[in-house]
Amino acid sequence: MTTPRTVLITGGNRGIGYAIATEFVALGHRVAVTARSAEGPAGSFTVQADVTDAASIDAAFTLVEAELGPVEVVIANAGVTRDTLLMRMSDEDFTSVIDTNLSGAFRVVKRASKGMLKARFGRIILLSSVVGMLGSAGQVNYSASKSGLIGLARSVTRELGARGITANVVAPGFIETDMTAELPEAQQAAYLKSIPAGRFATPSEVAKVIAWVASDDAAYISGAVIPVDGGLGMGH
To answer: What class has domain 6-175+202-224?
Structure first.
């Protein structure tokens, strides 16, 4: 049994974030989630936070620390998309996605590192995507933000690796969510054809990998990119 930890997940009120929170609660950890609205799963502690605002992140961490103790595992999951082709993409379409997905992760990691350095223990896990390495037409902003997380994790590993802190990237492929369910059947079929596993992942399959990366068993893994994509991004 892995040691119970205080875990903070950004964007833990829906989709993959909700599944991650559910998994950590089931494993007996002390779980907090940040959300701009709504709640995390039963057994978790929800705090309002906006990852584009450093003061908001600081306030959320302060609340969690008071309620559950110093954050030992942080999972930067909050993300947005504003998909459109390059020629139509505005500066704001680009910078707003970078500010949430990449700069937001930086703000969260920076605040989390304070307590981790003090404790000489930490697990930092950044949620990327297969498109961070594979690229995706219409997602120049999203893809750039998700590949940027790799440089972030690897630089943090070089800075903090000797202090018992790991920083890793988990890169999911296509996941069964409300969004993929709404895609036209022909589009779903085309996506499935490109995945060697022949199916989408469940959010729980991603959550279980993240729980393992956060566990005592993964103490010597850092700066890694772990794909959970059924073979879609092989070779990247």
So the answer is: alpha beta
